[in-house]
Amino acid sequence: MDWNFVTQEQKAKCQALGSEFWPIELDQKIGISSNVKDGIVPINGLRHLPEADTTGWYIWAGEEMDTSDDFFLPLHVKHLGNWNSEVLKFLALPPGWRFLKAGDYEDVWFDGSLLT
Prior knowledge:
By secondary structure, the protein is α+β, with helices and mostly antiparallel strands. The protein has helices at 3-17, 80-84, and strands spanning 29-33, 43-47, 54-61, 72-76, 97-102, 105-110. It is built from two helices and six strands; from the N terminus they run H-E-E-E-E-H-E-E. A hairpin with a 2-residue loop joins strand 5 (97-102) and strand 6. The N and C termini lie far apart (34 Å).
């Protein structure tokens, strides 16, 4: 994985959306559902405020987010490319941002309710 290229993609995505660039560290964790590896679409992501060694990102596949306690697994950012590299470009968006990706379609928006 060329992380310098990923960082450039992230900066470009933030600039295109007029958002601040909030980089993440490769040793930080995201919450991810195991079905992201299965190729299910859409892929969804939302970012809360980071805490401790987490990025604040939660990523899942499918139409609905499960609310069970074990739906999200912790995963270090450096391993996310093995699960789904298409979402890496979104991960420098600040807390409060969401995305939905399904093939060539993508929707990215700010959701202030994620900050409360």
